[in-house]
Amino acid sequence: MPMPHIPKADLIEIFSSIQGEGVLVGCRQIFLRFPDCNLNCRYCDTNFLKSKTCQIEKRPGSGQLIELENPVDFITVKKILTMWNSELPAAHHSISITGGEPLLHEQLLASWLPELKKILPIYLETNGTLIDQLAALINHLDWVSMDIKLHSQTGLRTEWETHRKFLKIANQTDCYVKLVVGEDTPDLELQLAADLVSGVSKNIPLVLQPVTLDNKTAVSTTRLLQMQALIAEINPNLRVIPQTHRFMGVM
Predict the structure, then answer these.
(1) What sign does the CA torsion over 116, 122, 125, 131 have?
(2) How far apart are CA 141 and CA 127, in angstroms?
(3) CA separation, residue 138 to residues 131, 132, 143, 144 (Å)
(4) What is the pLDDT averaged over residues 85-95?
(5) Can you give the pTM of this predicted structure?
């Protein structure tokens, strides 16, 4: 039976690497990076601008890149991922759908994810603000990595109620919440975030991720331990995990 028509997508890159953040840190994934974002966080270190071409690794983990013209055909993407999974049948934990903010591409993902899920489980990285888009896709997702965007670090207003509604949907599958924190993150923000997460479920892991500058953690150990002690009283399912891929020098 022929595959139904699946639209092409503008992509930034496709590569195989180690997940450097959150509760799946250390797991190897295939990363599909989508362009565009609905936020403009001042600490963001990711290129999410659309380009005429998509960069794809020649072989998984090689770091050697070739370029394909955007938009990329889904059949091409599926062939690449299927080949990588066949060459390294036990290597990859999942496919990371990342950005930018990938939920901006909800309609396209609605057609891509059911097919990609036949290859590997699906892991979504998201800023936790697009409620309706998550609701439309949640049945295709195995993991949701959700940020709560703190004003002290992003420079943007924290959408507390939006994050709460988003997390209630994300909690229908395996999910966790990540807080990017700096030395100046106030205790009140940490308490509000911890209350929000535990109010949805005390079983949801919460990750404190210190800001990284010049491949160094930009928050003192003393301050991180103060933050950990404060949040642990509200949400004991807590971990402190820096951006390990930055220290490893991997994609």
Answers:
(1) positive
(2) 15
(3) 10, 10, 9, 9
(4) 96
(5) 0.94
